[in-house]
Amino acid sequence: MRTFGRQCRGKGKVYLKWVRKTEKQLLSIGCQVVPLALCAQMHLQEDTAIEAVQRERLLHKLDQAIEAHRHIEKQSRQLVNGKKLDHCKIVNAYDGTIAPIKKGKSNCPCQFGKKPGIIAEMATGFLFGYHLPQGNPDDASYVMPLVQTVGTAIDLLDWTYPKRTPRIRSLCGDLGMNDPKVRADLHLEGIATVGIPTSIEPIPKVPTPEMIDEVLNTPIIGKKQNTTQIKTAYACAYSRPFIEGLITTLICRGATAIKYKGHRGADIQIGSAILAANAATLVRINQDRITKRAQLFRRLFRLKTLNSNKNNHTYV
Amino acid sequence: MGKLRQLCHWMTGQGKKMDVSEFVPHDHPLRQWSDVLPWSKFVVAVEESFARRYPKERSGGQEPLPIRVLLALELLKAELSCSDEQICARLRTDFAVMYVCGIEQVKVDRSQGHYVLPESLCQFRSQIDAALMAQLVAIQGADAMDKGLISPQHLVVDTFPAEQGSQRVTDATTLYKAKKKSSKSSNK
Lengths: 316, 188
Known about the structure:
The complex is a heterodimer.
Chain A lengths: L5 H4 L6 H31 L5 H27 L20 E3 L9 E4 L2 E5 L5 E5 L8 H16 L14 E4 L6 H9 L20 H8 L10 H9 L4 H13 L4 E2 L3 H25 L5 H9 L16
Antiparallel strand pairs in A: 1-2, 3-4
Chain B lengths: L1 H6 L9 E3 H4 L5 H7 L3 H15 L13 H14 L3 H10 L1 H6 L4 E3 L10 H9 L3 H17 L7 E6 L2 E3 L6 H17 L1
Antiparallel strand pairs in B: 1-2
Helix pairs in contact in B: 4-9, 5-6, 5-8, 6-8
């Protein structure tokens, strides 16, 4: 993929000797750190002079120190010379959170880095939030934390009747959303999972009556959706060019080359890039410099008044 | 004011006072970019987070640099693709950057080398955590929804790959480069 130069791809090899050399040093230090950290934790629990906030912070730091050692120790046992690299193995001894990204690769060596998840509005691409997991977990695990970030933003609104509090009506993407458990969780929250292709055939932009009936007859969500909303959701179907556009926006702002150290650093860098990209998106919305498709969606979402000179049908 | 002047160097000059907002045109991209961000809410969120995680043990001391300035510099780094040093240098001379940082007036003083040191920015960044960053994104989303600019009705989720630590050269990279270099030289 484009964000990885050839240097970072390497030739699919792990330089085992180098990893081992650094690993030995880390393990020898870790052996001494773990009993000391456990001892310090015990003393902290007994000490009543320290404030609760400070104690919590120190305990957290000690937990991190113990966990880091366990992580390296576990992976050290798994990394065997000549054996193929499995999921989530340590490859860079300087960063315990790094993991090979193996999913979706068929034509080039394994990538190494992080895989942040994003959730965005379909019309303009405003990013509601991001999720940066430790390691490289299952795709399906991204969905609910991402939905939660939108929920947090909605909770910050203090709207009361007659202004209706917004809610998520539909979600699309190819991020493990064909997983029945994820679908069930989303349906429980009244979110339709339409607009997601389940086969290699692209989904139609205008749903057939049978498709609408299928969604309406889905238990739980059927009661909360109507035909127009389902048609809009189908019009908002997953589109790779749209996602690529969002990723390009983030690339321009340096979200794909993590220069700050560690997981926290990556969080800050990606968060800053998203805030900057969102501000640029809002400038474009204010100046009405958005695509025809986005303009139509904004009319469908009732963010703009309908254009009497144009066809405002859900067909995009 | 005496204490403030020791750190807010844009107010320390002896020369003519200039109004920053009058200097930056209304259609300047950075001005427009800055105007859509809910700065006051951001600053409140950052202050609350810092006060909770790093409680002040003693009162007094010098006033720190305004959070608004440091936060704006951190976001500008992403928007302008600058390093710490570059963005701090731009703040000294670029009125649009000063506007984004919320500096309203500046006194002309060519003897002053900097307004904010890169070290100060780095120290500020070390206090930001993942929860605060997520909160800032949520605040921006809520503010945009409040203004009727966006809607969370229909959303899309996906991932993108991010390359780790490109600036820090690892042993693996060095070895890879060395091999590549030697193979190139042998081909010649």
